[in-house]
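Hi all, long-time lurker, first post. I run a small reading group and we've been trying to get comfortable going from sequence to structure in the token notation. Rather than ask abstract questions, I figured I'd post a concrete chain and ask someone more experienced to write out its structure so we can walk through it together at our next meeting. Sequence below, copied exactly:
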Amino acid sequence: MSIAGDATLEEVGEFALIDSLRPIFAQGEHVLLGPGDDAAVVRVKTGHVVVSTDLLIEGRHFRRDWLTAAEVGHRAAAANLSDLNAMGGRAHSLTIGFGAPGDLPVRWALDFSQGFADEAGLVGASVIGGDLTRSDQVLIAVTVIGSCAQAPVVRGGAHPGDVLALCGRQGWAAGGLGVLSRGFRSPKVLVDALRRPEPPYDAGAIAAAAGATAMIDVSDGLIADAGHIARASGVVIEINGDAFEIPEALVALGSAVGVDPMHYILGGGDDHPLLASFPDRTSVPAGWLLIGSVGARQAADEEGERSAVEGEPWVKVNGMSYDGPTGWTHF
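-- Answer (accepted) --
Happy to help. Here is the structure in token form:
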């Protein structure tokens, strides 16, 4: 069916749109049954099955006047693919729940789908199904399924004496948000980083094979996500701020708006690098930046090692509690 370029979802209808979306999503050999039935069927040969779900809402996670539909698609896919990367796994299948107003142009939905499919293709993953409904604003719910060849790397495995390392760029997307929210358009490299994240998709499995003890995708902010590892592991994360080489673009932005550029690095999200702990320096794979260490908590109360110690921060920067922005929280 040929759809006019200026048609809206309401004019085209649900099932005609679905028919137009199917050719965009190529199916891998692991897909026994793809879109079109009550559920998809995939084949898993070996390893552990890992699953994650993420939600993106217009006005909360993205703005259509800041991002093209294809860029929203790339971001939606990247956020989910990166979660499995952080477990030491790799995605093979995704489903998309898509809600939108009736007057949304069909072209937006098609371009979103193409961007999503292109990002999924970077790891060889297939979109195997989903759902479509009317909503007051664009709403995207993604479920990603994958596998780990070895035991998944979780947040709760860090030990005192481990080293802390980061793989991937960090703070660039936060800088891009800072640029757009002030009505600027440059430094363009930062805006581009917000629009098209570049997660290190091969790094998770490599880190797992190298013996990573804990790992997380930095989606909300470095301090915030380091805190998740610290709480889950019952340890203190020590970040060395001097380990980072601040990109020139972040320095320029910070100077223009009067913000310490380290705030973008320590508190920024949406770049989706990996943060992991390793037993020692020699076990850290190439391409990872050593940024700190893991320490023991001063004490633990009767509830055990996962309990907070009053007055002691979970994450320290240069040996001290950090009082700057730590990352995104929804509530």
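A couple of things your group might point at:
Residues 304-308 have pLDDT under 50 and may be disordered.
The two ends are 44 Å apart (CA to CA).
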